[in-house]
Structures are given as C-alpha cells and as structure tokens.
C-alpha cells in the first residue's frame, strides 16, 4: 500500500511513522509513506494556501489549487484512482469497519487541513471520503490522520506477528474484546480465572465469548443493536441482564 499525506506541518509525522508497528510495516514493504508540504504546490509566489472567505466571516479558508495540484502530483502514475481522504469534523465517523475497507486499497491520500475550513470545490471534486474521529474539533487534521493510518496499516497482511490479533480486536467482531491475563497466576491476592488455566479450549472460548458480551453490554450496549446475535449469544445476554 502507498499512503500519501498532505500537510502544512510534515515534521509532525517524523516520530509516528518511524517507530513501532508503522516502522516495521515499512521495513517489511507492506506500506510506503510520503509526507508532503502542500505549500509547495501553491501557484502564489509567497506559497500562500489560504484566503478570506467570499461573503465575509471569521477565519481563513484553504484554497483549492494547492490541494488539487498536490493530489495530482502524488498520485501521478497510479494504476488505480486513489481514495482521497479529507480529515474533517463534518465527515463520516471513523470505525473499524472503515479501517478494514481502506486496508483493501492500493493508494490512500490524506489531506490534513487547518484554518476555518476548505473551499467547497475540494469536497465536491477532489476527495472521495470525509472522515472524522468524533464529535470534537482538533487544530488540524494531522493527529486524526495519524490515528487512522495506524488503524489501517496494522490490518495489512504480515504487519502484525499474529493474524488473529487484528481479527479478534475490539470492534472487528462487532463486540468489545474479552479480558486478558498473563503470569503470575496470582498477584497481590488477585487470581486469574480458573477456566483460563484449565487447558480446556472449548470452555475458554465460551468464557471469552461471555466476557465479550458482558463487557459490550456494560460499556457499549448500542453495539448490540447493530449485531446479529446467535441463539446462544441471546441466551447469554438475557442471563447477564437478569443478573444486573
């Protein structure tokens, strides 16, 4: 996968893209990154990328021409049209399902904006997706794009040591992930659930499913409304509700 990031502050990505899983993903040639300062593509001699909004109002608006030029440059020669993603509080809320969808693409372009907003022609004629991390506003799109890049890249084949790690993540199954324990079996008087020490893999899977349902019911009951539950899962939910 090729990921291009257009930002006015490319130095913000130095540490993030060159450590941990993202660094390993590049070393394994699962992904390549290009971070570009889109000021370079302004046709203004002062490399100005914003201007006052027509009709008046507070703040500055990003001009269309630097971003259209930058996207054309970073996608030149691409065999398939890229997904061009605008980081925006007005966008679709980012989810694990969206991460899985984007992980199937060959080329992604992230636009990180600043100021009051974007010229509407960028939305209408350049981008394919508008994404938001949630109902809050950040200073710019850089931090949001970092989070989404990390979420997508870890799903690429060969990036995580164990393929099941991403498959069993919270949200990938439609449920929150079950609790985890490791050695020692008892710490400060607190013991690991005995079923996990039993060696009975069937019972362990049953326990994990029940714990996932319990955690989802307690913390994110809204997720259960969107999930098609099996008869056994429905029985577990009813039992958990009766205990509450």
Structure in words:
The protein has 244 residues and is α/β, with parallel strands linked by helices. It folds into 2 domains: 2-153, Alpha/beta knot (3-Layer(aba) Sandwich); 173-243, Trp Operon Repressor, Chain A (Orthogonal Bundle). Helix content is 37%, strand content 17%. It has 10 helices and 10 strands. The strands form 3 sheets. Strands 2-1-6-5-8 form a 5-stranded parallel sheet. It has a 3-stranded mixed sheet with strand order 3-4-7. A two-stranded antiparallel ribbon has the order 9-10. A hairpin with a 2-residue loop joins strand 9 (186-187) and strand 10 (190-191). Helix 8 (201-219) crosses helix 10 (231-243). The mean pLDDT is 93.
